């Protein structure tokens, strides 16, 4: 009721309000009260059992539901009027009772919608709805929201999503009405109980369990590794579907109140989030061992990938504990990775492996390079982890020795340097193992074999990008140097048995001596090297071709020149045991890992017959 005032003068007094205006307003309000009572009483849950199972917000009752909510708004205005005009009015008491009846009805409707629409309000359906609209949590006006929802319901959308949109619209309308009427506590209580049970049920189906640090550390590694793999999948679903969908639903239903949104969302998700994000930190406290590296990195990588979404979903002030827990998990996992890397490096250095038969690829080389090449697939996560972790080299070595590509990115340079260093530690260990071979030629063949395997692994993995072409070229050249040293130490005695020049005439005795020395040296070299191997086909062919070029042409020239001279010696002894073709065949037979050694004495009769 509006009161009019005029300026008071000494001879006048204030004019009274027109009596008919007051009477008109009061009669209209009384009429509205009667209308509200008819509608509210109609849906009074205590008046009929039928009303307990009938929803005011069902499709065919929707116009009446809107009228019902408007009646509550009018009833609230009436109560304010009666309080201002006559606080002791019987009509005020009547209006208050009607409000209580209406709130009980809305409580029931709110509960029923949440309970009966579980499949429509599951996080996936809510997330699907959100994909059609902005994910911003800012509130829009009620009219705009209603207009938007009506427009969307008119579009062609999946049935489940349409039902989800309708349920969310009804929940928001009821929540706005109850909060506006001072019954927000009752509304929030129902929401928290039902939605928390849905979250708990979803976590149960995801297989997420709460484990203490002690329980995790007592698990066998196979069991824990299986739990980790399960967690990786569950975490993505929980964050991108479960928590995200719950945040969307909460923001929509309680858009009228930021504090209620925050309270509902956190009370609904806090325990589940704590269970989910506490697992990685507990895993990080387990005993550090190389076999745990990749599962630890999987955890770090998953959390790191999910962090932007986690930060956006849990952006309330009261959710700072959740954000801190996630950050702590990443920090602890990073520390665990660094500790495992240190343990891995130490394990390489302290390996007490013996020589490998035949100078082939050592099991340590295979293990370390397979490990490192697989590790390189995590270079993104490792770049973050080792960025501020200095490499402590025990002795001053030039960086070019273990190499890293030139880059302006310090973080990328750090991880490249780290991989280069780990490979250097392996190569140093291989140098030590090589000294255990009795044959110097075999030690060089061993180094050539193993370094070639290292180079191949780098070339066929992500390590190539990390270490760069310069590293590849330097170590490839080193393989060739090892191979050349093998040739020198393994075949120099054979080459020295032949004269340096075939132009000069050589006495018969000297010719005989050359053949005998060649026979002895070649047979000894072949027998000694018959079990030696070169696994890389390209390197094997290069070595055999190089050895053949150094021996066969010189021997063929000598053989062709003096074979006829030595024929008279056939009756007494076999002076010429190898034809040039035989020597080529024997050389071709060497260094094959899958082939057994031949016998020089059993295969040389043909050459003897031709001599």
TrEMBL record:
Pfam families: Exo70_C (PF03081), Exo70_N (PF20669). InterPro entries: Cullin_repeat-like_dom_sf, Exo70, Exo70_C. The lineage of its organism: Eukaryota, Viridiplantae, Streptophyta, Embryophyta, Tracheophyta. Residues 1-21, 121-158, 591-611 are annotated as: Disordered. One of its GO terms (molecular function) is phosphatidylinositol-4,5-bisphosphate binding. Belongs to the EXO70 family. Component of the exocyst complex. Residues 124-139, 593-611 have a biased composition (Low complexity). One of its GO terms (cellular component) is exocyst. Transmembrane segments: none annotated. It comes from the Eukaryota. Keywords: Exocytosis, Protein transport, Transport. SUPFAM superfamilies: Cullin repeat-like. This is Exocyst subunit Exo70 family protein. Coiled coil: none annotated. GO terms for biological process: exocytosis; protein transport. Residues 229-589 form the Exocyst complex subunit Exo70 C-terminal domain. PANTHER family: EXOCYST COMPLEX PROTEIN EXO70 (PTHR12542), EXOCYST SUBUNIT EXO70 FAMILY PROTEIN (PTHR12542:SF17).
């Amino acid at each position: 009721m509006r009161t009019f005032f005029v300026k008071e003068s000494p001879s006048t007094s204030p004019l009274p309000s027109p009596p008919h205006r007051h009477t008109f307003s009061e009669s209209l309000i009384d009429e509205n009260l009667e209308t509200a009572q008819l509608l509210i009483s109609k849906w009074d849950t205590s008046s009929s059992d039928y009303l307990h199972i009938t929803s005011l917000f069902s499709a065919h009752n929707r116009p009446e539901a809107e009228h019902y909510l408007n009646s509550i708004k009018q009833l609230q205005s009436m109560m304010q009027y009666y309080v201002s005009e006559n606080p002791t009015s019987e009509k005020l008491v009547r209006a208050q009772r009607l409000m209580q009846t209406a709130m009980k009805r809305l409580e029931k409707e709110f509960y029923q919608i949440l309970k009966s629409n579980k499949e429509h309000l599951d996080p996936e359906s809510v997330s699907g709805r959100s994909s059609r609209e902005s994910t911003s949590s800012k509130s829009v006006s009620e009219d705009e929201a209603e207009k938007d929802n009506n427009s969307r319901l008119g579009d062609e959308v999946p049935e489940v999503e349409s039902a989800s949109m309708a349920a969310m619209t009804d929940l928001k309308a009821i929540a706005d009405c109850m909060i506006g009427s001072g019954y927000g506590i009752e509304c929030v209580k129902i929401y928290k109980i039902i939605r928390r049970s849905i979250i708990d049920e979803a976590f149960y189906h995801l297989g997420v369990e709460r484990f203490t640090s002690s329980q995790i550390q007592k698990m066998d590694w196979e069991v824990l590794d299986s739990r980790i793999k399960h967690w990786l999948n569950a975490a993505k679903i929980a964050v991108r579907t479960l928590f995200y969908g719950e945040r969307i639903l909460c923001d929509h239903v309680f858009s009228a109140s930021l504090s209620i949104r925050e309270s509902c969302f956190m009370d609904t998700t806090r325990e589940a989030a704590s269970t989910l994000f506490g697992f990685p930190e507990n895993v990080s406290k387990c005993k550090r061992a190389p076999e745990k590296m990749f599962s630890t990195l999987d955890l770090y990588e998953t959390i790191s990938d999910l962090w932007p979404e986690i930060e956006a979903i849990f952006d309330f002030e009261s959710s700072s504990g959740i954000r801190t827990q996630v950050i702590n998990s990443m920090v602890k996992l990073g520390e665990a990775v660094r500790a495992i890397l240190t343990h891995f490096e130490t394990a390489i250095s302290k390996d007490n492996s013996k020589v490998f038969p035949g100078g082939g690829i050592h099991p340590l080389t295979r293990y370390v390079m397979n490990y490192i090449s697989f590790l390189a697939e995590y270079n993104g996560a490792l770049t973050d982890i080792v960025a501020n972790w200095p490499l402590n080299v025990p002795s001053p070595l030039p960086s070019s020795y273990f190499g890293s590509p030139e880059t302006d990115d310090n973080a990328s340079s750090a991880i490249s340097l780290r991989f280069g260093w780990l490979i250097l530690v392996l190569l140093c260990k291989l140098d030590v193992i090589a000294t255990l071979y009795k044959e110097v030629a075999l030690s060089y063949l061993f180094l050539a074999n193993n370094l070639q395997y290292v180079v191949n692994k780098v070339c066929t993995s992500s390590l190539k990008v990390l270490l760069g072409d310069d590293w590849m070229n330097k170590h490839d050249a080193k393989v060739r140097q090892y191979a050349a040293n093998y040739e020198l130490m393994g075949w120099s005695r054979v080459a020295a048995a032949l004269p340096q020049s075939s132009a000069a005439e050589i006495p018969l005795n000297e010719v005989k001596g050359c053949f005998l020395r060649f026979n002895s040296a070649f047979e000894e070299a072949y027998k000694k090297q018959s079990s030696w191997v070169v696994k890389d086909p390209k390197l094997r062919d290069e070595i055999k071709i190089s050895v053949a070029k150094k021996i066969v042409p010189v021997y063929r020239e000598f053989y062709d020149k003096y074979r006829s001279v030595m024929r008279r010696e056939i009756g007494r002894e076999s002076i010429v045991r190898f034809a040039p073709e035989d020597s080529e065949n024997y050389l071709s037979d060497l260094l094959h890992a899958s082939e057994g050694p031949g016998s020089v004495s059993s295969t040389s009769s043909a050459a003897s017959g031709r001599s």
